[in-house]
Specification:
mainly alpha, 6 helices, about 60% helix
Length: about 140
């Protein structure tokens, strides 16, 4: 398996550059699965999600991406007039990369939960419940 040879080109947005740099240095270069061309295409598609998360939420670390971030992205894509099938394709790419993030703090829920969360983004209690349910718990042994 050939490592992905990519670099993050600075955009001038410090939050986006931080997340993009983390993504390239910690995730994309070490990702396995599929052809190099396939991973490059997934990278290009994931970049749009990173731009959205950086602009809207500004997390300090890539590992902090939460289910509500993904649900908010779904809402934004719907508002942009993107159809459900295209959104599902984007979620597949986001899910694939999310699984590649080492020591991620949250698992990505299945699509049913994400679409329900997208509808209930304004309900703080529901958002907190989903966040709690999908938080990765690790013990002393890393499990």
């Amino acid at each position: 398996m050939v490592a992905l040879q990519i670099e993050w080109k600075p955009t001038g947005d410090t939050t986006l550059d931080r997340l993009g740099g983390q993504f390239v240095d910690r995730v994309a270069k070490f990702a396995r699965g599929g052809s190099v061309q396939g991973r490059l295409e997934k990278f290009r598609r994931y970049r749009r999600f990173l731009v959205f998360v950086a602009e809207r939420f500004g997390p300090e670390d890539l590992r902090n991406i939460q289910p509500r971030h993904i649900a908010a992205y779904i809402r934004q894509r719907r508002q942009d007039g993107i159809g459900k099938k295209a959104i599902l394709n984007e979620l597949a790419v986001i899910r694939w990369w999310h699984r590649q993030i080492p020591w991620r703090r949250y698992e990505m829920p299945d699509n049913t939960v994400l679409f329900e969360l997208e509808e209930k983004l304004d309900e703080k209690a529901f958002c907190e419940e989903v966040k709690r349910r999908y938080r990765v718990r690790r013990g002393r042994r890393g499990v």
